[in-house]
Write a structure and sequence with these properties.
- The complex is a heterotrimer of chains A (281), B (495) and C (313).
- With 281 residues, chain A is mainly α.
- Chain A is 70% helix and 0% strand.
- In chain A, helix 1 runs antiparallel to helix 13, helix 4 runs parallel beside helix 7 and helix 7 packs antiparallel against helix 10.
- Chain A is globular and about 70 Å long.
- The two termini of chain A are 13 Å apart.
- The C terminus of chain A is likely disordered.
- Chain B is globular, with a radius of gyration of 24 Å.
- In chain B, strands 2-1-3-15-6 form a 5-stranded mixed beta sheet, with helices on both faces. Chain B has a 3-stranded antiparallel beta sheet with strand order 10-7-11. In chain B, strands 4-5 form a two-stranded antiparallel ribbon.
- In chain B, helix 12 crosses helix 13, helix 12 crosses helix 20 and helix 20 runs antiparallel to helix 21.
- In chain C, 74% of the residues lie in helices and 1% in strands.
- A two-stranded antiparallel ribbon of chain C has the order 1-2.
- The longest helix of chain C is centred in the first third of the chain and has 34 residues.
- Chain C is flat.
- About 4% of the residues of chain C have low confidence.
- The chains are: A mainly alpha (281), B alpha+beta (495), C mainly alpha (313).
- Chains in contact: A-B, A-C, B-C.
- Chains A and C meet through helix 1, helix 4, helix 5, helix 6 and helix 7 of A and helix 2, helix 4, helix 5, helix 6 and helix 8 of C.
Amino acid sequence: MRERKDRPITRIIIYAILLLALAFFLFPVLWTFVTSFKTQKEFFSYPPVFVPQQIDLHNYIGAMIPPPDGRNGFKSLMDSGIVALGTTILSMILGAPAAYSLARWKTGGDDLSFWILSTRMFPPVAAALPLFFIFQKLKLLDTYYVLILANTIFVLAFVIWMLKGYFEDLPTELEEAALIDGCSSFRAFTLIALPLVAPGLVATTLFAFVFTWNEFLFALLLTRRAVRTLTVMVPSLVGGHEILWGEIAAAGIVAIIPGIVLALLLQRYLIRGLTLGAVKG
Amino acid sequence: MKRYLYTVLALVMVFTIVMPALAQAPNEDPLDVYKWDYPESFGNVTIAVIGDAGHNLKPYEFWKEDLAKVGITAEIIEVPFDAVYEKEMAEFVVGSGAFDLVTFYPAYIGDFAGNGFLEPLDDYMVKEPAAVWDPAADDILPPFWELYCRFGGKSYALPIDGDILLLLYRKDLFENEEEMAAFKAKYGRDLAAPTTWDEYKEVAEFFTRKKGDMLAGKELAHNFYGTAEYGERGFSVYWFLNRFTSNGGMYFDADMNPTINTPEAAAALQNMIDTLPFMPPDVMAYGYEELKDAFLKDYTAMVIQWSDVPKKAGDPELSEIGGMVDVAVLPGWAMEDGTVVHRSMMPVGRVLAVAVDSANKEAAYWVAKHLSYDRSLDDVATMLTGLDPYRYSHFAHPEAYKMFVSEEAAADYLKGVEANMAVGFPEIFIPGSAAYTDALDLQVQKALTGEATPEEALAAASADWDKITDKLGREQQVKLWNQALESYKALGLIE
Amino acid sequence: MSNDVIAKKRKNRTSTGLRTGRWTPTFFVLPAVILLFLITIVPFIIELILSLHVYEFTSLADPQFVGLQNYVDVLLHDARFWNAMKITFIFIIGAVGLELLLGVSLALLLNRLRRGRSLITSLLLIPVMIAPVVSGMMWFMIYDDKFGPLNYIIEIVSFGHFGGTAWLAQLSTALPSVMVVDIWQWTPFIILIALAGLQSIPPELYEAAEVDGCGAWQTLWNITLPMLAPVMVVGFLIRFMDAFKLFDVVYLLTRGGPGSATETISFYTYLRGFKQFSIGYTAALAFIQLIVIIFVSKLFIGYLQRQRGEEVA
């Protein structure tokens, strides 16, 4: 572990800068949070209302409960979760070994690497319509499968490329030692390499989840009613003649919670001191 | 464990008590204005309905039991307001058969009906008995019926929401004696709702004041503006079209040449640009909400907006002006012979149509008819939806509009809306509507921000329109446009 | 610290001589490749064919084969296309550039903390978690000229001298306002991958540097940043490709306006594809974008490979 004694003044400056950063990054979230408790009158008033008159949950209830009285936010939460989880798991399971292969053995050379990355490059706005046709023919529209598959296109390439970078940065000594000892490549991969890139793994999983969670265009086009993610539900709160700011804010806050929980859970692995010392050890 | 069970029990009780209480019906006693009847039961059918999400889908909830009585369950598919066109179009083109009943903005009737996606309704409308099947088309205001529900000589849709733009102004400010005197002194005529676009600009200028200035005897706590219009990309074009069409403007000639690049058009656009200084500085970002709020929160003296704003003016949750609103016909353009021509655009609006590949066309048609006629007065007269009147009968029953302070106020409102509807002018409703509108909107924006002169902007839009026509097939477009022109003529919108 | 030593340290890192069975590498890669191939090849071919036709959904006419005419139309006759590309590139350079700068800087600072690092990092991650459709709406409220908190705060902080402005309504401020939202949303992404990258720099490099008498800035410049570079390039590539796709935020904040001030290439493609349903033209637009992205990506990947190449030498 690096030992570096910072002078107190340096430390104060660092904290001050980080505090400023926190203020910038968190203000909109706090604003959303506060808005979720406001009444209709308080949305657009001057001076802006920073503390609503009463803290009540009517916006949350309205956003979450099923119709006719609510916006069915709870179902959307579940649907978004299923799609995001499915995509993430699929992408990680397929992507990690692929990334390892590309990193350790340069499988397929540069061309394969680049092709994998390129699958992510095609503008989804244009890809949406052919996908719509294909899945309509396959009768898969408005199912979880269609969204998981469509999202996997973009997430899988992301996962492979991110993990490839982390694997490439990992020295090979431990794996070599294991192979000499008679381990199979697969075991070297799962028992040694994977744990060692844990921070990278965690960061990638988190973002894979979040990318899917936040995806809008495919969700809009490829589903109708049976599956309705949060990203489709929230713009529906922008009506022709009314914008339900309170429910939007409430839905937004609820939508963040899984992500935050995930981040907190994975936190320990993320910033744990590496066991890299063991390599030199 | 026990505590957990009790909590669950409590929650269940709360929901079973709370939810029914929240279920809403628009009125305790629906008005019995129309004579209608139930059809024979359709058996056990589910009608898939697609529509833009929000309170305009509430009628399916209000009248659920009506539908249930004849064996119909309505399954609602909601889409975001802006995504209606692409969602419905994509599903139509693949022939997915996912919807029975489609709600859309009537500008798309050309795209949908012209491409054969919708079921013609004429045969259904004349079925016997009339009390079950007749939607009383002659009760619908002609511009809406003729231009927005029929295409190529056939009927394809029934209206449920009649949107039209109105000129709204602050009754209290216009009737204030100090202001009236000041206006008369400055302009030599009485202060009143402007009747021409030039007058409109003058009135707007008159009322634009800075924070600290006096207005109607009170000191202003913030800047105040004469008027506000829709500046956001996507819809700002309609506010231009108000001026353009009243100046004799038309979209294309009989050969499908764009006629938007004329001196009249440039004058119309110039008027809009000249009035900008008297609108709030962020008006170019104004969508529906901001525009409504600018007026209702006491920032402007006038506003040109949709017809549901006066309904909200009296609600203290939404409005700071206590219902002090009057409705006038949109300003017009003075012609050479001294007459003033008024035109009011009818953007958005909603109609219901039956998909041509629906398996339950009769049932779907009846649902449409039920909402468009039988229960329509309740739907447009309630605060719970954003639906607006479109039938003569809607205008004839001010007592139904309970959100106004008095029946008289409601009657005034309805008169104003009707007057604007009488001079209603449609959006482009032939195929390609969305493309033409977007192209013009972009150029209008460029002129408003000063990126281009009115002449440049209109010339560019005109060129774009030609490109679009060519892409779609000029022959076909000419044919369809001439059909549309027949409708325009029938309504007296052109000679 | 001499360059030989660094080179020698790096050499150990990516030797490709790891022993393995003959087919093992292929098996590792196969499932992913098969899935990707299946899902992407059909749409790709469809789009390619479509781009060679004039095909308008809203027209009754049949699609017409026109060869490369669509491409010619886009590149030579479409001013809106070039405007959209210009806007997109301004956006990428400005927003992604700032994201990298801010992200790496904040990661470096965070890396020096012992206490509070986890907490602050978790908090900083929150913007990424928020769906753009939600954050778009919230920033729309914040930017509101009359009622939004931003102008209010500006007014207070400047003691009434500046009242803020109509952020989304003016040509000069619309695009920067949209960029700020993107920076707000994605800087945490860069922070996180930079942090993970910083964590994997072997400590003995720093020890050796200290022994050699390197100061803080030298260490930063000669060791930290170069070691961080490969991970950052990947991060940049990902952000670059995503910024090209920027849609949700534009859609919610400005709809491409005022005028076309925020009409990114993605939004323009959307208008052509979904409002006009000019399917053939849109496909051509998409392929042109693809070519641009591939070209730029190759540049950066080439850089990455040169880095690796040096190490192996």
